[in-house]
Amino acid sequence: MAESEYPERQRRQLYGRRKGPKLSARQADLRGTLLPQIAFDPTMDAQAQFPPHIKSLWLEVGFGAGEHLHQLAGEHPDIGMIGAEPYEMGVAKLLSKLAQEPRANIRIYEGDGRDIIAALPDGSLERFFLLFPDPWPKTRHHKRRFLQMEMLNELARVLKPGAELRFATDDKSYLPYALERLIAHPDFEWTARGPSDWKTRPQSWPRTRYEAKAIKGPPSYLAWLRRKPGPAPRDPGLIDRTGNS
Ligand SMILES: C[S@@+](CC[C@H](N)C(=O)[O-])C[C@H]1O[C@@H](n2cnc3c(N)ncnc32)[C@H](O)[C@@H]1O
Asked: Is the pLDDT reported for residue 236 higher than 60?
């Protein structure tokens, strides 16, 4: 695979919508009051944007309505949860949830998750989530998919050795597309030991809104580890896990 799959101009374009239905008066109010208090600024020190007790950072790109981010933030109050979502109504939904059930450890970036990843220092994240990303099923649109080889290089850079990358999809063609790139990437190692590891949602993965409402087929849940430095071990489980010979 070529090191650069697509020209820079195409890679940096954000696909998908930012605007949707008009916000309610309450949503618009929260956008003006709560969002500025918890907005994440990629140009500033990530850790410094959280309360001092927070020592580890997780990032979810494309959080949709934010239920996964919100639940995990509640379960892990010592983790700083950064969420990126350019869709205004998605951010509004998470803000409404936060107004009802505040979480001191969530910061929101209303924009392209790639801005955050590009700005983070090496080894700054302990977990990364990409859950049911826009599938862009037509071949000519595959370049719009989030999980490009260049993105994996960037994720390998910002994830600490041993950190986890979680990816879920219900799209039949995004699954092999992601697997092809992850398997080829020297810095990532699949944690699955058998089909039940990727066909069943692990208990520690809260269900997302998309997953609950709009599923197209059986989802796959992939958990990968950022390899620690050292020689890459031969992977005897790969053939069983993928079903390929
Ligand atoms: C199919 S939805 C899934 C939302 C959520 N993860 C879920 O499972 O319910 C994909 C989301 O990714 C967001 N998205 C697409 N490209 C993005 C990017 N470059 N950075 C951040 N979010 C992005 C879209 O706005 C959309 O809300």
From this structure: no
pTM, rounded to two decimals: 0.91
What is the whole-number distance in angstroms between the Cα of residue 167 and the centre of ligand 1? 12
Nearest CA to 156 out of 111, 123, 203, 197 is that of 123
Within the chain, where are the H helices? Answer: 8-11, 25-38, 67-75, 88-100, 113-119, 149-158, 174-184, 195-199, 209-213, 238-242
Q: Is the CB of 211 under 6 A from ligand 1?
A: yes
For residue 55, list its beta bridge partners.
Answer: none
Could you read off the pLDDT of 142-200 as tens digits, one per residue? Answer: 999 999 999 999 999 999 999 999 999 999 999 999 999 999 999 999 998 888 888 98
Strand partners, 183: none
Q: What's the CA-to-centroid distance between 16 and ligand 1, angstroms?
A: 8
Q: How many CA atoms lie within 13 A of 68 on its CB side?
A: 31
Which positions ≥6 away from 117 have C-beta within 8 Å?
Answer: 59, 61, 151, 154, 155, 158
- Ligand 1, atom 19, lies closest to the CA of 112
